[in-house]
Input
Amino acid sequence: MNFLVSGNHETVLQFQTPLRERGELEWLVTFTEVLPRISDAGSGLVVIDANAPGYEGETSIKRLKQLNPAFKVLLVGLFPPQKELASLASGAMGCCSPLLDEEQVRRILAIVEEGGVWISNAALPQLLQRLRQRSEKVSPPAVQPPSSEVLSNLTQREREIAKMVAAGDSNKIIARKLNITDRTVKAHLTTVFQKLNVRDRLQLALFVSKTSQS
Output
């Protein structure tokens, strides 16, 4: 069972079809309406418009996750990086723009449903910086980080793109810098994900960050 919480007509149109393609969907206008429904709804996905009545940011995310930890939360809105990272830390699986087309929405829904995390290119560098700072404060793990030699499995172009993703560049920016098409960038990233056994851009960025330190 999936839920869409929004009183905005454009947001509803943006997410309604991609969500219905993935199973049963209930549309609610306010955040408070979803709470009694989600507590015994098993597992699923709830997409919340950050401007929905009753939604109070991280407090609402934590409350929802307490009621049903199995539900994945995806937020829709325009978030500054600090707010986006706070939402992820509270239990959200992603924060996405209300300006995406349906195909982009489908891709994000697939990533979140599979357990991945969706993070914007603006927030990714800050997240990596926080993780580096945190790793410096704790003792090194028993397991060695991935060796930089692992990246040798990639072609030169694939390594370039992987490092650009780690730097927070979007597909469009990468395509412009390398003078290739967005479709070519996506094709390279698909291959990179498979070769490095990572699931999404966040895992790729973390992988590249760790190998650069080894």
About this structure: The domain at 124-213 is CATH 3.40.50.2300 (Rossmann fold). DSSP finds ten helices and five strands in the chain. Residues 141-145 have pLDDT under 50 and may be disordered. The two ends are 43 Å apart (CA to CA).
